[in-house]
Amino acid sequence: MNKKILFVLFIILSQNIFAKEMVSVPLNLGAGPALNYIYGAISDDQTFHYSLKLDMYALLDREFLQSHGSKVPKKYRGFIEGRDELRITYLFIPESLIISPTYKHTGIYGINFRPISLGLPLIKSQGLISSLGLGLNVTYMFIHSDSVFDKNGYMNFLRPGLNLQLDNIVKITKKFLISGGVDTYFYIPQEVKRDSPIFEIGDFNRTIWFVAQVYFIFNIRVPYRTRI
Prior knowledge:
Elements: H1 3-13, E1 22-38, H2 41-45, E2 49-61, H3 62-68, E3 85-88, E4 96-103, E5 106-124, E6 128-145, E7 153-171, E8 176-191, E9 207-227
Antiparallel strand pairs: 1-2, 1-9, 2-3, 2-4, 4-5, 5-6, 6-7, 7-8, 8-9
């Protein structure tokens, strides 16, 4: 979803003093476990680390877009025409929380944001939606270890990156869905070493530059009332 589409959706949903009509929009609230494989020195010490995957957005389906498209300025209507659905996310809601306490040697805590993403549907049926997504991410991880670093050291990983995602959503009911898939993240490399400078790449052979993730999410959709 690009910035222009976000702007169009902001126009549709914004609450203001001229708003007259109250409408209901489905709000998706999703959370579930994820396994992260952090390629390199981290995975050599421990194969997987854990996180909480989040999937929260307002859903505008085709019926909503058709019935309220007239409220969008004419020059922006081309961005929503022909779309089955659009998802609106708030920029400051994290995409995942990394919560991986120390097991034997290494612990990791962090957060990932995905402010921009684009999706391409691959399969769409009444009960299954599969899609391929591309996104821009910003990830922070606090990594501490008594084996990866000398004398129980730590480092702060902070990098922008791109992700490629294969996502599958199974509709159990209209309000309850289960999703799962694979996420791959590609970062500007940062060396794994004690007190690693965040503005340096360092020795590429000891950098974090790739993370693979498998996730499983439980989703519920609840009505959200707003004025347009």
